[in-house]
Amino acid sequence: GPRVRRDRDIQQFVTQRALQSLLGLMHMNRDQITADWLAEWNEHEGIERYHGLNGLKLEWSEYINTLLRTPPETLVVEFKRRGNSGHGGYAGNNPYLKDHVMEMRTDIQPRKLAERLMAVREELAKEWVEELPLLQRESDEVWRSFFEKVRSDDGQTDATANMQLLAFENFDPTHTSGSLNQGGDYDLIKTLATLAATDRVRERAERDTQGKATAEWLERMINVHGVEFEGDMQLGASQRFIEELLKQSPSII
Questions:
Q1: Res 2 pLDDT > 80
Q2: Confidence of residue 87 (pLDDT cuts 50, 70, 90)
Q3: 66, 92, 180, 225: which could join 244 in a potential S-S bond, CB 3.0 to 4.6 Å?
Q4: Please, which residues bridge with residue 75 across strands?
């Protein structure tokens, strides 16, 4: 079949999120040296804070296979311990105490890191399978809210007309009932599903002799209102896109 775009590829996405979760766990466990090495490997600095669909610089399979083949190395980090810091019972202003240069050696095992990454991928995949039915509930809620507003005679609606959507504890490192970035994962899953669904509807319309206008309309909507899907996103991008679609008036071409 046709090649899947990187920002529509579930394998690409789950690998990216596994890497982000693994880096977060390393920081929580104070393994800063290994975390820095992994983030800098193939120029992924800052990916832990990235909220989007296209964070990996490589294809997911290339990333994992290359990491598996990367030879181990030992990093030596030097840090200076102040001799006159006042620790160990000595006066802090003793001019005769010299600074000491300390060394910390950390063994980097890329193969083991790749194995940990694949294990996190598997955990995320299982968690997401349990969350996917929530998308159907949210779709039902979107339609309920939409028709509630349509039925309002004067355009005024109460709070029940607003969409009541699931809220996760986004990016809370103390969150213990799911993965480290569960809320962010779910938000991006909705975005990925929304983009994939838009592509599928557009492709079906293009194959229909009478669907060309629909396909072109969806393309325009993505070009105009889909800019939020690019790069580092804000939470709720998919919801705002759906709301923009629902705001559009029907037209006959």
A1: no
A2: low
A3: 225
A4: 106
Distance (Å) of CA 252 to CA 214, 217, 220, 246, 249: 10, 11, 16, 16, 10
Alpha-carbon distance 5 to 12, whole Å? 9
Q: Which long-range contacts does 212-220 make (Cβ < 8 Å, 24+ apart)?
A: 213/253, 217/251
Closest CA to 133 of 180, 186, 199: 186
Can you read off the two tokens belonging to residue 88? 């160990």
Q: CA-to-CA distance for 232 and 220, rounded, in angstroms?
A: 22
SS3 86: coil
Phi first, then psi, for residue 76 (nearest 5°) are -115, 115
* Cα–Cα dist 10/33, whole Å: 30
For 143-158, what is the mean pLDDT?
Answer: 70
**For residue 105, how many other CB atoms are within 10 A of its CB?**
9
- Percentage above 90 pLDDT, the chain: 53
d(CA 169, CA 157): 28
Joined together, the tokens standing for residue 66 give 């290359």
Local structure of residue 57 (DSSP, 8 states): S
Q: Residue 196: enclosing H or E segment and its boundaries? A: helix 182-207
Report the pLDDT value the prediction gives residue 170, as an integer from 0 to 100: 42
CB 156 within 8 A of CB 169: no
Q: Which two tokens stand for residue 209?
A: 């002799």
In this structure, the chain runs to a length of 253
Instruction: Please answer whether residues 84 and 94 qualify as being in contact, where contact means their C-beta atoms are separated by less than 8 angstroms.
Output: yes
Tokens of 74: 């030992």
